[in-house]
Write a structure and sequence with these properties.
set domain protein methyltransferase, domain 1; alpha+beta; 483 residues; single chain; 16 helices; 40% helix; 21 strands; 2 domains; set domain protein methyltransferase, domain 2; 4-stranded mixed sheet
Length: 483
């Protein structure tokens, strides 16, 4: 890695403001971080104090990259279009279509272009005009990184985690993007060759460092030099935050807590993110475990893969993936679970829920949902809440006995949640001698934390189910016997 003291010189030359006493330097296991060596700052409720301010034109985002490309024809050619292969119809040859690059793809291609070690002198000379190349030399290029950069045996270590499918899907997507970009790259720079690792590294930088740009209606992101070296702590331990300024600049500022000389300036990457999500996005696993062993780890998300056509249709109506989300509150020692999809999955025609494919006057097909003979407007806001309320109020007459159906539905939901948790816990751990020790360690850490969270959730859901069952035992058993 380049001499970190050069970062300050680079910042001054590019208009980035670093306040006296603020420095970027090694912080041990977390790599580089932002440290305050100035006089102590007392806790205050007043205006936040800036530590680093990055002007708008020094943010690595698609707008600035495309502005640079106007004077660099080869860079412009790299950013022209993406080629997506698509499945041909029977009898057709394999086909592809062009489309504009996504915001993330623009940044990804620019990072590869900026970091690539060109062989030809003319290409090296071209890179000298890239103001960000010197800064990007300080980004890590080896180590644990994120799982999409791992080898196949290393990725298999995550088989027992909540992110295994997501890592596999993203890796496949990145490999597809790389193959398309590799063709463009070799055409623009004959004789040069880029590697998959370069592309995976670029995506790692975006995943772990990019932040959403202010006033962005389409969720554009950017890398904010120096500010993006601020490391993560739980929200209660942070002493800094990002702030968007009126002129488009982005600053690392204090949050009112006292800062002593020698303190590291830290931010929260999101306390609602669980161990798996942190590893997936940032490449490390934080953990908050209380003295009594309770793990408060943000949200653990388990993907549910609908197998039946009817269940896939229900997922389609939701407009989002079927996910069981488990949250833990360290203060109250409580566990909560939510899963919108589940409330559709546990009911069917016998319960009054119908799915129908209807042809509209326009000739298009529409998937229509009805409950108790009434059409549910799935385009309405919070329509699922309305459906759940109807389920809560529903009664059914079974063998001359009228019973409330909500306890039956609730127990069904609990059973499905417990089945998913138990299935996840039963996934065997994978071991391999081909894996780096540091990767093995972080994978095992993720598995250990998620296992504790799942055990906590398992006990909570089982208790909730038993409480509901005991309170409505007569009706539930009658329904189970006669329905």
């Amino acid at each position: 890695m380049a001499n970190v003291q050069l970062l300050t010189s680079w910042a001054l030359l590019t208009g980035i403001t670093i306040e006296p006493g603020v420095a970027v330097r090694s912080t041990g296991d977390t790599g580089l971080g932002v440290v305050y060596d100035g006089p102590g700052i007392a806790a205050t409720d007043g205006e936040p104090s800036p530590f680093i301010t990055v002007p708008a034109d020094m943010i690595i985002n698609s707008e600035n990259i495309q502005r640079m490309a106007r004077s660099q024809p080869r860079l412009a050619a790299l950013l022209a279009t993406a080629i997506d292969a698509y499945e041909p119809m029977p009898g057709e040859d394999a086909a592809a279509e062009s489309r504009p690059l996504l915001d993330r793809e623009i940044i990804c291609r620019f990072l590869v272009y900026s970091m690539h070690d060109f062989k030809a002198d003319k290409h090296q000379h071209e890179q000298q005009g890239n103001i960000f190349r010197q800064f990007l030399a300080f980004y890590p290029r080896e180590g644990v990184l994120t799982p999409t950069t791992w080898t196949e045996p290393e990725r298999l270590l995550l088989a027992a985690t909540s992110i295994f499918r997501a890592v596999d899907a993203k890796r496949n997507k990145l490999e597809s993007e790389f193959l398309a970009f590799e063709k463009v790259f070799s055409r623009v720079y004959p004789g040069e060759s880029m590697t998959l690792h370069e592309y995976l590294l670029a995506d790692f930088y975006i995943s772990s460092r990019a932040m959403e740009m202010p006033s962005s209606t389409d969720r554009k992101v950017g890398l904010v030099p120096l500010v993006d070296f601020a490391n993560h702590r739980a929200h209660v331990e942070t002493n800094c935050k990002y702030e968007y300024l009126a002129d488009g600049s982005i600053a690392l500022v204090s949050v009112g807590r006292a800062v002593a000389a020698g303190d590291e300036l830290v931010i929260s990457y999101g306390d609602d993110k669980g161990a798996g999500e942190m590893l997936f996005s940032y490449g490390f696993v934080p953990a908050i475990e209380t003295d009594d062993g309770f793990v408060a780890d943000g949200a653990l998300k388990l993907r549910i893969v609908p197998e039946l056509e009817e269940d896939r249709a229900k997922e389609y109506l939701l407009g989002k993936p079927a996910v069981l989300e488990i949250r833990q509150d360290g203060a109250s020692r409580t566990v909560e679970w939510t899963c919108d999809y589940l409330w559709l999955a546990i009911v069917g025609r016998r319960d009054g829920l119908e799915l129908e494919l209807v042809e509209l006057v326009t000739g298009e097909d529409e998937l229509r949902l009805s409950y108790n003979g009434r059409v549910v407007d799935t385009r309405a806001e919070r329509w699922l809440d309305g459906l759940k309320q109807q389920m809560h109020d529903r009664t059914d007459t079974v063998a001359d006995r009228t019973i409330g159906m909500w306890p039956v539905y609730y127990v069904r939901a609990c059973v499905r949640v417990l089945e998913l948790i138990e299935h996840t816990l039963e996934v065997p751990r994978v071991e391999s001698d081909e894996c780096r020790p540091a990767v093995v360690a972080v994978a095992e850490q993720c598995i250990a934390i998620e296992t504790k969270v799942l055990r906590q959730a398992q006990a909570t859901v089982r208790s909730q189910m038993e409480t509901m069952y005991e309170a409505h035992r007569a009706d539930i058993e009658w329904y189970m016997k006669h329905a």
